[in-house]
Amino acid sequence: MAELPADPTEPELVPVPTTGRTFTTERRVRWGDTDVDGHLRLDATARYLQDIANDDTRDAGHDPMAPWVVRRTVVVVRRPIVLGEVVSLTTFSGGHGSRWAERRTRLVGADGGLVEVAALWVFLDPATGRPAKLTAEFHATYDEAAGGREVKARLQHGPPAEGADVRPWPLRSTDLDSLGHVNNAATWAAVEDELSRRGLRAELAALEYPDATSPDDVVELRCTVDGDVASVWLVADGKVRASAVVRTVPA
After folding, report:
1. Secondary structure, 3-state, 82-108
2. Residue 10: which of 18, 19, 2 has the closest Cα?
3. Predicted TM-score (pTM) of this structure
4. Helix or strand (DSSP H, E) at 184
5. Distance in angstroms (rounded) separating the CA atoms of residues 80 and 92
6. What is the mean pLDDT of the chain?
7. Which residues, 6+ apart, have CB-to-CB distance to 56 below 8 Å?
8. What CA–CA distances, in Å, run from 87 to 36, 71, 104, 112, 224?
9. pLDDT tens by residue, 37-88
């Protein structure tokens, strides 16, 4: 996956492969997935991505409960997906490192919506919770589609800017997953909420996780907007737990 600078330009995304494993499913966009303008929200998109990743894992005969956590996600909204639209989601491997892999997902709406996503997932040892080497089973299933591409897990975003707007971001029990972390979709909800408050929506968004957010964290949301670029940080105990850089358009 191409680097995403602080002033984001569209990254080069790996196309759907002609050989190797791909997995496709469909779902209809429901009321709970959209904003007030009927566009598919970022947090709903993240849920779609989590669901198809799990469905693909199960369909491939792998353990669907194996622990993976998201390190970085880039979402490119080429044309907004809207309420009621039937979406075809195709996912495949965009490359990997020793302990992580990029999952590409392409969302194509029946009414013309199109969203491209590249997400870097880190594989964890279930006993220690530490990053673990990808298994032989993983390589046998996904290497052909990846085509020998290697991806890095290095994060790109800088620290919170001086003078950023600051407000609390209270955590809810419904934000947590079974690992005891704030779920990826819940983090995207914070970004979506901040954009909505400012009358903006995402055209290109990159979300990174320098650290996990825990249930007892007291989180504050910091944000700056420079031209059409919004930057968002979720901070607890002086540490950035998640950050997003978003190229925006008016909502």
Report:
1. ECCCEEEEEEEEEEECCCEEEEEEEEE
2. 2
3. 0.94
4. helix 184-197
5. 22
6. 94
7. 23, 91
8. 19, 25, 16, 10, 33
9. 999 999 999 999 999 999 999 999 999 999 999 999 999 999 999 999 999 9
Handedness of CA 147, 95, 186, 224 (dihedral sign): negative
| 164 pLDDT more than 70 | yes
Going by their DSSP bridges, the two strands 219-226 and 22-28 should be labelled as: unpaired
The per-residue pLDDT for range 149-162, each reduced to its tens digit, is 999 999 989 999 99
- Given this model, what pLDDT does residue 1 score? 44
In angstroms, the CA 215 to CA 172 distance is 8
Q: How far apart are CA 5 and CA 16, in angstroms?
A: 24
In this structure, what token pair is assigned to residue 153?
Answer: 């897990």
Label the pairing between strands 100-109 and 114-123.
antiparallel
Side chain identity, residue 137: E
SS3 assignment, position 202: strand
Whole-angstrom distance, CA of residue 131 vs CA of residue 154:
14
Section 124-131 average pLDDT? 92
Report the Cα 69 to chain-centroid distance in Å: 10
* Strands, sheet with 114-123, edge to edge from the N-terminal-most edge strand: 22-28, 86-96, 100-109, 114-123, 68-79, 200-208, 239-250, 229-236, 219-226, 165-168
- Mark out the alpha helices in 200-248 (DSSP H runs): none
Would you say 121 and 53 are in contact if contact means Cβ atoms under 8 Å apart? yes
Are 40 and 86 in contact by the 8 Å Cβ rule? The answer is: no
